[in-house]
Specification:
The protein is mainly α. It contains 21 helices and five strands. A three-stranded antiparallel beta sheet has the order 1-2-3. The chain has a two-stranded antiparallel ribbon with strand order 4-5. Helix 11 runs antiparallel to helix 12, helix 11 runs parallel beside helix 13 and helix 15 packs antiparallel against helix 16. It starts with a helix and ends in a 10-residue tail after the last helix. The C terminus is likely disordered. It binds 2-acetamido-2-deoxy-beta-D-glucopyranose. 2-acetamido-2-deoxy-beta-D-glucopyranose binds next to loops.
Length: 587
Amino acid sequence: MPSLSTLVSLAAVLVSVNAQSAITTPYTPPDPSQGLKASGKSTPNRQWSNILGNSLYFYDIQRSGKLPADFRVSWRNDSVPNDGKDVGIDLSGGYFDAGNYIKATLPLCWVMTQMAWSGLTFGNGYNSAAQTPYLDRALRQGMDWLLQASSVDGELVVIIGTEKTDNVYFGGDQNIPAGPSDRPAFKVTRNNPGTDVTASCAGAMAAASMLYSGQILPAATSGNQEPADLQDDAYAASLLSRAKMLFDVAQNAQPQQVYQKAVPQVAWAYASTDYTDELVLGAALLAAATGQSNYSSYAQDTYNSNGYPLTSGALNWDGHGPALPVIMTQAALAKPQLGLNANKYRADAEKYLDNLVSKKMQGATYTRGGLFYVKGDSDDSSLNPALNAATLAVLYSRLATTSQKTQGYLSWASSQVDYTLGNNPANVVYQVGLHPNSPKNPQSALATGSFTGQTSNIDTDPPTERWVLYGGIVDGPAKDDSFSDRRSDWQETEVALDTVSPMLVLAAHRLAIGETTDPYYVTLTADVNIVDDGGLSTGAQVGIAIGVVVGVLLLLAIFGFLFRGKIRERRIRRRQAKHIPLESHQC
Ligand SMILES: *[C@@H]1O[C@H](CO)[C@@H](O)[C@H](O)[C@H]1NC(C)=O
């Protein structure tokens, strides 16, 4: 007979396992060839379920630290056990931010907020596709790390690694340079505040705590809505109490400022433009989670005194402005006792969304293939502003004041999702592993399987990546709709936590509304149109190139002779510019 103490410890194990929702239907991504198989009319739609499942699988691939025993990604290993040692905190877990191995808190908090938001609004989408247990695991991986990063009162770790960490190593997960100078942790504190990142972390935790306490954010002005099935009240309570601590710091620590003023070491990677948007988003989520009027008043006052709503601009890890009236509407409806004016926020939300539908947004254009393109923000990450705007269109769709607007928002969102999933001049399906036309060489050190680990061989070692980075969404095509599937082309092929998170919202939405139409790529049988920067086919390029090269060589010979010193200088600068892929992560 087992002793009492054995039984007690067994019970403790069961309790801690039970805290996580059980995986009843294990999911691993199907081969990309399955992307050509129609699902039929049954629900949940198999292809949309795969998009949601693969998107969550991507977060498994990006995990850092010790991996669980039943881990799905066979080619990943435990990594960076010493992260955080320099500040006395175990920060080995969490996620690698993008194609390389830094960890970055500001984009992570946005990603976690978006992930929680998708579950709060479209929980039945996750439930119906049997993806809720994976949502649970993906959220905890981020939240547990944020709880660690904020475990010292008044402090928050904001980045692990430096520009050098990002630049010198492109190998696998077992030899990541991990000396103290390779992976230092930097933090903001009550005396040296980072208002934006602290408020953003508070918002993410408040959103997750709502989800874990079985709450929802309304997707419509009336009717019942099913929560995501992952309730864990104890976890919800610890997240909420930490969210309150952090928001208190964001609200009261002086001066309120962008976090790179406190920690200049983040500026190369993720400098923030403004902190008022994070304050409003964080306060609104705390108001929705708690029903406390101190948060709703602060959200409302900060919103009013900083010129919101925005009628244009990009929604992304840095700029949350366009999302604010949507979350304020949902908070107003979730907690009517707060007396927030839902109709004012609905009118505000529609100013931005109507500008999308009318295609008359200031500072935004559309590519010839139809991709929403925000000048500046879209240049290095063309799909991100489009997909993020689409999330607002679907999150808000059923809250619209007229059914005509609902239809307009949904069809605008569909146009951007269709573009991403293959309805574009390059015939590329921009999520990795979904379809034969998905990218093969996203900029990901993990998936590449380089033998040398050298950044200088990024495109050739090996020529095609060793592992499929299922679920990864690349930055996207150039403004002329051309795409080059090359790892060194970081503006097009880089993948990051925040390039995938909008798809969680978009796929969960389709599943939540019982979509029966397959995503665009299922009927896409045309070959990838290899267009490279000039926007022309390979054949045309070769033809033109031969003609041009002869002429140019002649000219170069003349100029080279006349300006020898100058040409050498230019060539050096271009070589430096080629290293930029690993130096910048501004998505
Ligand atoms: C994980 O370890 C195996 C075995 O050593 C190795 O072959 C593989 O490349 C590692 N994975 C990554 C992502 O580095």
